[in-house]
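Allow me, if you will, to draw on your knowledge of protein folds for a short while. The matter concerns a single protein, recorded as an amino acid sequence and a row of backbone structure tokens. Could you please explain, in whatever detail you think fit, how the structure tokens follow from the sequence? I remain grateful for any guidance, and I place the record below:

…
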Amino acid sequence: GGTLSRGATGGGGGAGGGSSSKASANGSSGADGVLSVTPDSPADSEWRARRGPLDAGGNGDVDWTDEDATGLQPTDLYGKFTWKIENFSEISKRELRSNVFEVGSYKWYILVYPQGCDVHNHLSLFLCVADYDKLLPGWSHFAQFTIAVVNKDPKKSKYSDTLHRFCKKEHDWGWKKFMELSKVLDGFTVADTLVIKAQVQVIHEKPARPFRCLEPQYRRELVRVYLTNVEGICRRFLEERRDQLAKFQEDSDRWGDMREFLGTAQGKAQAQLASEKADVLLKGIVKRFFNEKEVTSTLVMDALCCGCQALDIGSTKAEDAFKQFVKGRSVWLSASQNKCSIATDDLLSILERAASVDSLDPDSETDGGDESFAGDDAVERDERRLADLGRRTVEMYVLSHLFTNRIEVAFAEAQAIKMQEALIAEEEEAERVAAEIDGAKKSKKAKQKARKKEKKEAEEAELAAKLAEEEAAKAAIRAVEEAKRAEERRKRDAEAAAIAEAEAIEQAKQAA
């Protein structure tokens, strides 16, 4: 309880030339004060013995912690020590070194500058790697640690935390301005003894998937200090992805097309088949959230590791996982099957819920509380909040990845095919209309040609009739003229015959 004076990595740094001497390098000669392992309090022992919300296993038949049991666990990589420096006010040495202690198979020691390292009127404190110059080339130790100068009033003790990757160039790390010297005498020395406590957590990071970083009791202390920071990191991510989904849905035409697509047999099939290799997503989660220079990254990793386990179905079949999953969960993953997929056949509702402001609030199922973790312990409640936040963060990461890289891609392809079909139909319609217009033009020309032909034929017939009529008239005239000439000839013949007959009669008379 109480308010702890605590700093994060902002003041961290190396001791520079101060700890690069041979004596400091091996850290084994001329140790000052007395260093001892800090014993567990009854509360610490009780907490370490039980599994808290962030230690709970998942839905699957393989607990990630059990799977990694062949290696060192966070509990094996943690140590806490108390260093007592007597007659502190009488010390004139520039630097003091603790005895070497071992954490995570690595050797360490604490270095303190009573009058400050490259600064004045400040106490400087550093954690150092012992015998760093004797280690193999390319060595590195990754650790989170907390150093405290203890006050006789525990509420006023001064704590600082940091996360650092130790290497040959940065074999010591800490704070040049850990605290002002004027404050050291204000309750920080009792009987002229300065008490420094150190907690060291060596971290074996796994870039392939979220991993556990912290020993439970140490994590409990850090949760109390950094819960708000961790919540801020996860909530900013949730808000970022929620805004992306909300922006998509605000485009009513596009969202309407998406709803139509997901309502089709093709869309439903695409939603059910939408999947990704689990290792791809798990690597992405580590890359997105683990920052080795940010002291809260270890808590974030613990929360995300717990979240992954909550969504892991182990070797269970997908169709059976639907029945086992808590109502409203949108995705499932399986590290053993190396697969992540949609965990519901109502993707539209899941997307609309993920895009709503309510998606940033814890699920109602966590409000009532699991009786095994219920009680007055505020840290347990905070760990439940982190466990839930880790699960929702992983869920949103997987959902947004599947939506962006699978569903949206399938939707875009369907829209492209739809547009292509529409263009083809439009082109076919244009061709049909063009053919009709062309046919109409040809028909008009044919009619015009026929009319011209008919007109010509009529004109020709009329001309022929006129010519025939004229010919007939001429023939009639000729016939009349011929008849006149025949009549004239007949008359002439008759006259000739009459004359001949008269002559014959005359001759006969004469002959008689």
The chain has a mean pLDDT of 85. Residues 378 and 401 are 34 Å apart (CA to CA). The radius of gyration is 53 Å. The chain has 13 helices and 16 strands.
